[in-house]
Amino acid sequence: MASSDSGNHAPGAPRRAAAGPLWLRYAAPVAFAPLARRMTPWFFAAAAVLAVAGLYIGFFVAPTDAQQGEVYRVIFIHVPAAWMSMFIYLVMAFWAAVGLAFNTRLSAMMASALAPTGAMFTFLALWTGALWGKPTWGTWWVWDARLTSELILLFLYVGFIALQAAIDDPRRADRAGAVLAIVGVVNVPIIYFSVRWWNTLHQGASVSLTAAPKMAATMLTGMLVMTLACWMYAIGAALWRVRAIIAEREGDAAVEEQSGTERGGRTT
After folding, report:
1. What are the backbone angles phi and psi of residue 85, rounded to the nearest 5°?
2. What are the sequence ranges of the domains in the chain?
3. What is the structure's pLDDT at 66?
4. Beta partners for 65?
5. Burial of 47 (0-12, 13-18, 19+ CB in 10 A)
6. Is the pLDDT of residue 198 over 50?
């Protein structure tokens, strides 16, 4: 009988990928690591190209806003970062929940790999929001419902990372982090709907799936291209980081052995 991904093994012994369907084979961390290594440069390259295109559209092609002038251009960084901060948290919580429910090691590793990138985008959203808020509201910060809930999101990311770092046993750290991530999901809809539920200074959504955009087509194009760039970067960073986590937990030798096995299989 083939061994489960979640089974125990002798300390330091290499884990080999189980034979079977393609998706099942790559569910094993040592099999996924070479795939992550091959895919990472492509996502980073796509992120760089899209970021250059998005910034060019946002800062050189998009027209000046009639009310806010040039300062509005911070939205081409602020809005994608804010979207990604919430989206990455949901994906992180999903992988953490899968790891907790099915005791799959790769799922928990993916959650750990996503957390730093999510924290970075959350900090970027808060920082650019402050840059936007100073000329617009006259202050760097207000205890606005959306700003406060976004700050709580940053604390959740940092808490997730700190909690896992504080526990020596990786499996116990994964379970503890998963519980925190799942509980914290309730904050995401609070962030999104805060401008509808409370009277806040923060403006409402300019882009909605149920209504026509409230901005010029060029502005929307630049924002969406930048969002795609952030998405590509997030995937590339997660793949790069999960490979490092796999090498740390499984051992560099196991990862290199699996890489050599795959290269040998392709050349025969």
Report:
1. -60, -40
2. 39-64+72-201+214-257
3. 72
4. 69
5. buried
6. yes
